Known about the structure:
The structure is a homodimer.
Chain A: H1 3-10, E1 13-19, H2 24-34, E2 40-47, H3 54-60, E3 65-67, H4 76-89, E4 94-97, H5 106-111, E5 116-120, H6 132-139, E6 143-150, E7 160-167, H7 174-197, E8 201-204, E9 212-215
Parallel strand pairs in A: 1-2, 1-4, 2-3, 4-5
Antiparallel strand pairs in A: 5-6, 6-7, 8-9
Amino acid sequence: MNTSADAARCTPLVLGVLISGSGTNLQAIIDRIAEGQLPAKIAVVISNVASAKGLDRARRAEIPTVVLDHKAFPSRAAFDEKMVETLRAHDVECVVLAGFMRIVTKVLLDAFPYRVINIHPSLLPAFPGVNAQAQAVAYGVRISGCTAHFVDAGTDTGPVIAQRSVDVFERDDEESLRKRILREEHVLLPAVLGWIARGWLEVDTSGGGRPRVRLNPSNP
Amino acid sequence: MNTSADAARCTPLVLGVLISGSGTNLQAIIDRIAEGQLPAKIAVVISNVASAKGLDRARRAEIPTVVLDHKAFPSRAAFDEKMVETLRAHDVECVVLAGFMRIVTKVLLDAFPYRVINIHPSLLPAFPGVNAQAQAVAYGVRISGCTAHFVDAGTDTGPVIAQRSVDVFERDDEESLRKRILREEHVLLPAVLGWIARGWLEVDTSGGGRPRVRLNPSNP
């Protein structure tokens, strides 16, 4: 037995979850934690929208919530500085963008290097940006899905952690595809956070090029 | 019983296959036809490379072969005019790009509207152009695949007919991914040609936007 391994297993990963809307991915994380499947703890949920329904989900789970209205800040960087301050005040180790509809800046990324995770409703690099499901339907693809990735300075360009695919049918519209992909997001995001919580995810930046993400379940 | 339906079923689709290399997709078509699974006939195989190994596959199957060295033509259009002449001389109804490493022009596309099919080793619109498998490995995706699509004037931009996905593993390099995707190409391409041969594939250009491809197995 290895005491550091035991320590790694016993200390839950402290998450900060950023939302703008209904927060179904937040709910998936809450549920997996409650079931004991995800060794993590949500320390704070931050929304940039005061009416976001995800805030109710957090309150029901007795998770502290903070509303930061981006319009009240003079710049994206100033908004992100306040977010970093809030996340640090809650001892957050890993930041999860769960339907957070703001572009984040270097201020947040530098404060949490390779610890800002996004879930995107397409098989990146296909269909980055907004309305990914509508883009997929308009293009006429027959396979789409979702991507969990580390956030970098680009729009949905960061290193891929994991992906799940779904079939796209001729009868699909944006909404039916959105629902099908969302079911996969709810599986993928908690799974990826579990890998991080267990110390299984390695990011290799030694290559000089794009960082390589490796899943190593033999880690403590 | 419907006589036109019977006629549609009994007359094999006449294919012209364009290659530049080893022709494993050509072989998959030859094999499915030989097994009676694909109601088609390859009338001619055209290669722009005299040493292409796919030419031997065609000769073994007693399929007429034609070598057209693109370097012997003053322009892409002139090369394509000769291809169209050759395809028409063999009564070709449907043109299959099976590892054909030349950009085709409006000359070919206008001669065979929605009857020029390409198979591409990625889930388009991700990784168009050359070295799609290397692009996928470099990006670090976890899911890739192949796409059968109608060729249009862009590079791998035409309407998607069907796609098949494969997992991408951390240990993968371009070659291992190439092999895994190729197995799916060998399933997908003959299947799609079978849909066309049976009259099951409809292209709806009425929307004004991107043409919609529909699979309608209830057609005769």
